[in-house]
């Protein structure tokens, strides 16, 4: 029987690439996202790779939606082997004194609360089977801070800390926890951050070669396919042209 991976934020970017690569690697998928049409299109693509798939259309920011979706899983779909907490975003680049409260709420509700709601619902299913692997998609922004990053950096620092805490809490239940902290990845991330300003988003990657969705998906797949006795606790992955959150070589 194929292992089952549950991926949040699967309708674009890293989540979408991870779902497709996991399907190719022999996983069956539970994919989640707010954009129903994209979710259904991804489910179709996964089916074409001869993997079974269950699309769940809900918002990770809504605790009751998360609980109901997972509580209502039936049959084999309750045997979740891998949870990829991928849903997340950055909104705005304002300094703290000019911060927009709605931007802060969106980041906190998605990046921290959404991860917690999903983990809280799925971890007991893993504990009952004494096996599982939780992968949290953090960021270099969870290791460092940079101008305009304030609240986004704070949310990803929270993910970094939660990953360490989960690893400790899950140890006696034989459940792995992996924190993955990418540097610059060219996805919809910057378009969302700059609220649709495609020129500003493009400038983020100008003159350098960023990571791709597939690069991070490959890293996730490597982590979740290690032998049972191996757990990659923390992975920082950067473009060759990026040394840290601020130093980037542009040609």
UniProtKB/TrEMBL annotation:
**Classification via InterPro entries:** NAD(P)-bd_dom_sf, Sc_DH/Rdtase_CS, SDR_fam
Which superkingdom heads the taxonomic lineage of this protein's source?
Bacteria
Q: State one Pfam family annotation.
A: adh_short
Give any GO molecular function from the UniProt entry: oxidoreductase activity, acting on the CH-OH group of donors, NAD or NADP as acceptor
Keyword annotations from UniProtKB, A to Z: Oxidoreductase
For this chain, the family text in UniProt reads: Belongs to the short-chain dehydrogenases/reductases (SDR) family.
Give the protein name, as stated in the record. Answer: SDR family NAD(P)-dependent oxidoreductase
Q: According to the entry, what is the taxonomic lineage of the organism?
A: Bacteria, Pseudomonadati, Bacteroidota, Bacteroidia, Bacteroidales
């Amino acid at each position: 029987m194929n292992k089952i991976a549950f991926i949040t934020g699967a309708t674009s970017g890293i989540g979408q690439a991870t779902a497709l690569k996991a399907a190719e690697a022999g996983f069956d998928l539970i994919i989640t996202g707010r954009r129903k049409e994209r979710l259904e299109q991804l489910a179709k693509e996964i089916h074409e790779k001869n993997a079974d798939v269950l699309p769940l259309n809900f918002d990770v920011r809504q605790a009751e939606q998360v609980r109901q979706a997972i509580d209502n899983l039936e049959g084999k779909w309750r045997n979740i082997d891998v949870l990829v907490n991928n849903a997340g975003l950055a909104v705005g680049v304002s300094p703290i004194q000019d911060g927009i409260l709605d931007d802060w709420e969106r980041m906190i509700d998605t990046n921290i609360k959404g991860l917690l709601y999903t983990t809280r619902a799925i971890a007991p299913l893993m504990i009952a089977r004494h096996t599982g692997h939780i992968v949290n998609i953090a960021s270099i922004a969870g290791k460092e801070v940079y101008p305009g990053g304030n609240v986004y950096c704070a949310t990803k620092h929270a993910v970094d800390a939660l990953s360490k805490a989960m690893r400790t809490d899950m140890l006696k239940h034989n459940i792995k926890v992996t924190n993955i902290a990418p540097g610059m990845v060219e996805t919809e991330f910057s378009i969302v951050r700059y609220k649709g300003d495609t020129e500003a988003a493009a400038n983020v990657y100008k003159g350098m070669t960023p990571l791709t969705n597939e690069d991070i998906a490959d890293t996730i797949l490597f982590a979740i396919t290690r032998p049972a006795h191996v757990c990659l606790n923390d992975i920082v992955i950067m473009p060759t042209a990026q040394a840290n959150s601020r130093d980037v070589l542009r040609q």
